[in-house]
Amino acid sequence: MIQLASPGPVDVSVIVVNYNTAHLLHEMRDALMRSARGLAIELIIIDNASRDDSAEVLRRDFADATLIFNNKNVGFGRANNQGLAHARGRHILLLNTDAFVAEDTLRKTVKYMDEHPDCGVLGVRLEGRDGVLQPCCRYFPTPWNVFLKRTGWHSIFRGTRLVDDMGWDHASIRECDWVIGCYFLIRREVVQKVGLFDDRFFLYSEEVDLCWSTKAAGWKVVFFPETTVVHLGGESAKSDAQLTAGRQISALQVESELLFFRKRFGLGGALAALFLSTIADVLDVLKSSIRRRWPRVAEARKHLGLYWTSVGQTRLGSRATR
Questions:
Q1: CA torsion 105→110→111→117, rounded to 10°?
Q2: Which domain holds residue 258?
């Protein structure tokens, strides 16, 4: 029997941040409920000042959940931190509104965490509605591997691990650097030791940073492919701005990348990121101009401008702008 917000012990506190995705809330919740049979869970939903009818839907149809309504969009990481203050579970699940779990997802992942106390964070196999595999677990980004990916020079420097290296068996449990935040199961002891998200990250890179802290504290980050979550991606972000090919908002992605590189690699890392990103954009402009790919030229020039603007606004990744 599913227990929502019960006064007794809680197996999993599910924290959901909603922003303009009222059309997904019921599907997300119904899939979660089917998956949680036999577990005591609590559902905590933070609405980040949605402009659609999310508030009405939540108040009307989610009375059993703990509801938090922000009067402005405080960002993904900060909103999850708000939810954490209400969480009582021995595990914390961060779940996106556009992520729909399978019937066995919650039970299998909680069982794995319970049987492997060295696992601090766990992610699962992700697919789109079309069944196409999505990047599920990744290597940490560095200024160098991001540069190689953007320029296509990774075929020359084959010894460098790219962030989105998909050339391996996605059917086996394996340790990795970080997992995607749409289904992010974290042990309470990890949160108690390293915290949840650094609130300087408004959107993007927050789960990368948290996985870095988790591994540094001695726990493993694990990819668990024995269950699948359907993930749409970018459903909240697209309500505010045009998305990149990777379904991200460019300016936010650039800022978060700079903040991460400055935090984890210091001033030298931020300078290296600026230098290499500039080279990548200039090379892209030159190559695309020669091939008369004018939309690509405009895209590269836009990225170059965004990067230098973000460098100034964040003081080379030393502070957030939001």
A1: 140
A2: 146-158+249-322
